[in-house]
């Protein structure tokens, strides 16, 4: 394009000099023609800019990260003039379009259209634009190019993956739902409205004395077993200080690891709690697949803007006096405070596993991980290229 512009400028200068020296109709006609050509080219470019049509759509705007979904776009010439050199630029930083290059050039005859039916894959969780980013229109002499920003871009809502876990390798044996539990998973809840006859061995504290007096026989209150959460998941939503791509990858892995573990227990009927800080401390209780699905849908809008360090969330929960629970901490930062808090949780009779999502392999970090492991804290480092499922799953031996 630069060469064409240079030739055009030199032509204008040369024809101007020729006309000034020799005069006459032909030299001046050549001079005016060299001026008129770029003007016509520019007007043509503007005309195409305002007249071409673009349509694009997806089969579904709510998709799961990594899943392919149908995508199509149409670029059309609904005019009476040929459109040349229309370049389509696709967004490719967070999505991938199957079987097409990222930049495609089209030339359209009058009433002609080009259609592309393919698939698109969103690579990260969140809400962002996908598909066509911009259109570059170039004139027939390659003198001018106008970039047409797409005002009606497609916005996809991308849910995180739920990684299937066959057997949770990070869980201690007494918490693994396929093995006998060391700790009770139920707590008793009183139902005053349901009574039964007293049986030998029943606690005298359960006797309903007023009902006994009315019926003139010993009656005891009926109790039901209320599930007690054994799994407590902590999600670190502090802002991650890395380059943009690593930030997105780390955020996805933190959310997906929590989802994978919570889903694993929900499918097996074991209650779990998810604790995190986003506009205040939040605690999500999950004891069924329906409750898990509700939390899963909300994960698309989770923001990593917490002001509360993860060790404070763990410490606040520990002060309840938990014993015999399984703490899982998904974080992107290992600190001395988290080490000390985790050790206190461990000393209280709980089990602690830390999922450290980071590429940090400095000597300081390695020493901290070694110290945690020596104290009995399970630490699993998950790097950018690692798969969540590989870390969480284990073969049944």
UniProtKB/TrEMBL annotation:
<protein>
    <submittedName>
        <fullName>DUF58 domain-containing protein</fullName>
    </submittedName>
</protein>
<keyword id="KW-0472">Membrane</keyword>
<keyword id="KW-0812">Transmembrane</keyword>
<feature type="transmembrane region" description="Helical">
    <location>
        <begin position="29"/>
        <end position="50"/>
    </location>
</feature>
<dbReference type="Pfam" id="PF01882">
    <property type="entry name" value="DUF58"/>
</dbReference>
<dbReference type="InterPro" id="IPR002881">
    <property type="entry name" value="DUF58"/>
</dbReference>
<feature type="transmembrane region" description="Helical">
    <location>
        <begin position="128"/>
        <end position="150"/>
    </location>
</feature>
<feature type="domain" description="DUF58">
    <location>
        <begin position="194"/>
        <end position="239"/>
    </location>
</feature>
<keyword id="KW-1133">Transmembrane helix</keyword>
